[in-house]
Amino acid sequence: MRNALRTLKPTRRLTTTALTVLGTAGIAATTLAGTAHAEAPAKPTAKPAAIESAASTAQHVSAQAAHAQKAQAAKAEDEAGGQKYADNLDGWIREARAIMAKHDIPGSYEGIKRNIIRESAGDPNAVNDWDINAKKGTPSKGLLQVIQPTFDAYHVEGTPDELTDPVANIVAACNYAADRYGTMDNVDSAY
User: Fold this and answer.
1) Helices (H), 80-186
2) Which end of the chain, N or C, is more open, meaning fewer C-beta atoms within 10 Å of its C-beta?
3) Among residues 11, 19, 2, which one has the least CA distance to residue 38?
4) Strands 140-141 and 127-128
5) Could you report the per-residue pLDDT of 78-97, keeping only the tens digit for each?
6) Global confidence as pTM
C-alpha cells in the first residue's frame, strides 16, 4: 500500500499542475488519461486533437497575457525613469511621484500617503458607495477616492487609463489637487 501511495503522489502533483496550467484542457486530459488507481505509471497515450488544440491555445493566450503585462510594466518603468518599484503602497507612491516630477505636478510623499490612508486605508480597490457621488451613480474609487469624470479630466498620459490602477489614481488625484488646491499637501479632508 505504501508503494502505491508513493506512485500516486507524483501523479496528483502532475494532475494539479496540469489543471493549473491548462485549465479545461487539463481537466479533459485528466479525465481521459485517468491513472489514479494505477500501481505503476501508465504508458503515455496520444492526446486527442481537441485536447492538443486547447492546450496550445491556453499556452498561446498565457504567452500573450505575459507579453502584454511586460509591455505595460516596461512603459510604466520608462515613464518612471527606468526604475522598478515595489508593488505596494510605498512603491506606488514613489512611482507616482517620479511620473509627477516629469509633469511638474507637486506633492510630497508624506502628503500623498496621509491622504491615501484617510481616503482608502491603502486599498487600491476601495469604493465609496454611500456619499453624494455614489448616490448620483458615480462612486469614488481607488487609493485617493477619485470619481471617473475627475479621473478622465486629470489623467496623465503614460499611466494606465484605469481609475483603480494605484499609480494612475495617485497621479490623477495629485494633478487635480494641484489644479484646485496648489498641491495634495494642502488637502486635509475630503476634496
Assistant:
1) 89-102, 109-120, 132-135, 148-154, 166-181
2) N
3) 11
4) antiparallel
5) 555 678 999 999 999 999 99
6) 0.59
Q: Tell the residue number behind the cell numbers 497515450, with chain if given.
A: 45
DSSP-derived secondary structure letter, 159: B
Cα–Cα dist 179/173, whole Å: 10
Q: Length of the chain, please? A: 191
Q: How far apart are CA 88 and CA 81, in angstroms?
A: 18
Q: Cell digits for 24?
A: 479545461
Lookup result for grid cell 507579453: 67
Q: Quote the cell numbers at residue 29.
A: 486530459
Q: pLDDT tens for residues 14-23?
A: 333 333 333 4
Smallest Cα–Cα separation from 130: which of 138, 142, 119?
138
